[in-house]
Structures are given as C-alpha cells and as structure tokens.
TrEMBL record:
Species: Cupriavidus basilensis
Domain HTH merR-type positions: 1-64
Name under which the protein is recorded: Mercuric resistance operon regulatory protein
SUPFAM superfamilies: Putative DNA-binding domain (SSF46955)
Keyword annotations of the record: DNA-binding, Transcription, Transcription regulation
Keyword Transcription appears in the UniProt entry: yes
Keyword Transcription: yes
Superkingdom of origin: Bacteria
PROSITE patterns for the chain: HTH_MERR_1 (PS00552), HTH_MERR_2 (PS50937)
Length: 116
C-alpha cells in the first residue's frame, strides 16, 4: 500500500511515516515510479509504535526492542518483561518526584525558601 493509505489507516501523517522510515522503524520498498509501497502488517506495527510511545518508550527504545519482540518465541512474554522494566523506572521516578514535592512544600512560607 502507498504511504497515504498507510498513514490514514495507522492514524499518522505521511510526514510521520516518512520520518519513521528514515530512522528505520518501518520499511517500504520503492516501486518503479518512485512511490513507496508498504506491506499490510506495517499498519499494526505503526499502531504498536504509537502505543509504545504513549507508554513512555522512546523511538530509540522501540527501534532497539522491535526486532527482539518480532523474533521472540513468545512476544507477549517478552513485551511483558519490557513493560515490567518500564514500570520499575516509573516507580523510581515517582519516588523521586514525591520526595521533591515534599521538599518544595516544606519550603513554602519559609523566610528564605532557597536556604536549607
């Protein structure tokens, strides 16, 4: 399918699909007329990329783990392991933000809030 059809079915702009192709997240072949031609499975893959981004994964992480997930004997298990790692990162960050919030709250109303 051509880039416009892929973009529409995946809910992306053509520029986004071109960018993803440029960085290696999706591959299309070039037809004789120069148009890009993408396989039907590219739709599901691009939807996966968007979901992964919404869950806090960077495009670099998606690219790094994409082949690993596609080639895993049990992709659901491999994905669950990646989600568990992400959850641990979120928990650490949440603890850091909670401590920062407490520190900021303790300084509100102080004579000089920037002094300890």
């Amino acid at each position: 399918m051509r880039i416009g059809e892929l973009a529409a079915k995946a809910g992306l702009s053509k520029d986004t699909v071109r960018f993803y192709e440029k960085i290696g997240l999706v591959e299309g072949r070039r037809l004789g007329n120069g148009y890009r031609d993408f396989p039907p499975e590219a739709i599901a893959w691009l939807q996966y990329v968007r979901t992964a981004q919404a869950l806090g994964f960077s495009l670099a992480q998606v690219a790094r783990h994409g082949a690993e997930l596609r080639n895993a004997p049990d992709p659901a298990h491999a994905l669950s392991a990646l989600l568990q790692e992400k959850l641990e990162v979120v928990d650490v960050r949440l603890a850091e933000l909670t401590a920062l919030r407490a520190e900021i709250a303790s300084r509100i109303g102080a004579a000089c809030p920037l002094r300890t």
